[in-house]
Design goal:
Shape: rod-shaped
Structural class: mainly beta
Number of domains: 3
Distance between the termini: 147 Å
Number of strands: 27
Order of helices and strands: EEEEEEEEEHEEEEEEEEHEEEEEEEHEEE
Number of helices: 3
Strand content: over 45%
Helix content: under 10%
Largest sheet: 5 strands, mixed
Strand order of the largest sheet: 4-11-10-7-8
Length: 338
């Protein structure tokens, strides 16, 4: 007879190693036939999703996600390590579900700057099967941050200020230096997260020539990572006008005054005035321009006052001619009175 029979073997119920399947056929008359098959029951190693690789630069804490599985349905144990230091062990780990290992910012910052580090995941099935996943990353430093954006402030007509805040994700010491163009305004150690102000004072404003300028903030942390914030602006003044901050008090009415300015007034009209009753609510300003231009003493004509005391004051008004693009400036003046 030609009959086809099938034998089913529950391999999962067998131990690892060699096994034999034997079939013996008897015809009832003393005749027999035997067929023998041998096989080896082996174990499938667990699997871990993804592939070994480089996660790149890291300057903040991060999380790595993965899943595990086992073709034999074995109970799995997971060990997570950072540079051979065990972070976590998961017994009877779930198969086919997302698992995550977290490198906190605190743990990251404890690593050497610019060091290359290895995150290793090991999965075992208790039957000799093991799988590994290894990923590397480089611990880098974040530069400090300065709030806001670089800004073009356009035309400015006098002193002004801009607010900003400095932060650093690693909490490093940060030194801040402020500049107007390339001249330092101040340098200080920042209090992270605290609002600060960069100011262009009137004094510094007056020292600037017409044209393009910038306020610049540089923040440098202890690892020399640097951030810069720039506020650009332009100055285009056509009139310079100022007087003494306070009159020079005199015992009696001054009768003469000499003023010798250091200035550059080609392309401009200059007017210099003086008074000997500078403390009056309405002083008597006298035009002394002509005498200033020839470096001669001017004789006051005023002999009255309404205030309780006499005092000399000087006033400059320099008006740039329309269409003139050259520099007009005054850097100071000297003089005397009696």
């Amino acid at each position: 007879r030609n009959l086809v029979n099938t034998i089913s073997v529950d391999v999962d119920s067998l131990s690892l190693g060699k096994h034999t399947v034997k079939v013996v056929v008897s015809d009832g008359q003393g005749g027999t036939a035997t067929r023998t098959w041998t096989f080896t029951r082996t174990n499938s190693a667990p699997t871990i999703s993804g592939s070994d690789g480089n996660l790149g630069d890291k300057n903040l804490g991060f999380t790595y996600a993965y899943t595990i599985d086992d073709a034999d349905g074995d109970t799995l144990t997971v060990v997570e390590e950072l540079n051979d230091e065990t972070i976590r062990t998961i017994n009877n780990a779930p198969k086919g579900e997302e698992l995550t290992v977290t490198i906190t910012s605190e743990k990251l910052y404890a690593l050497g700057l610019n060091s290359v580090n290895t995150l290793k995941i090991t999965v075992t099935d208790g039957k000799g099967g093991t799988a590994y996943r290894r990923v590397t990353f480089k611990r880098t430093n974040s530069a400090p941050t300065i709030s806001g954006q670089d800004k073009a402030l356009g035309l400015k007509n006098g002193s002004f200020a801009e607010n900003y805040t400095v932060s650093d994700v690693e909490g490093d010491n940060v030194v801040v230096t402020e500049f107007v163009d390339d001249a330092q305004i101040r340098s200080y150690q920042a209090t992270l997260g605290q609002q600060e102000t960069i100011e262009l004072t009137r004094e510094k404003w007056l020292s600037l020539t017409n044209g393009q300028h910038q306020l610049r903030i540089e923040a440098v942390d202890g690892n020399f990572a640097t951030s810069v914030r720039v506020f650009s602006f332009s100055k285009k003044e056509t009139v310079i006008k100022f007087e003494l901050a306070a009159p020079e008090e005199t015992d009696a009415a001054a009768t003469k005054v000499l003023v010798t300015p250091t200035w550059k007034i080609e392309g401009a009209v200059a007017k210099v005035e003086a008074c000997n009753n500078g403390f009056d609510a309405v002083p008597t300003w006298e035009d002394i321009t002509a005498m200033v231009q020839i470096n001669r003493v001017y004789n006051f004509t005023n002999k009255t006052k309404t205030a309780s005391k006499w005092g000399v004051n000087i006033r400059f008004t320099i008006t740039k001619n329309e269409g003139f693009e050259g520099e007009v400036s005054i850097s100071g003046f000297g003089g005397a009175y009696e």
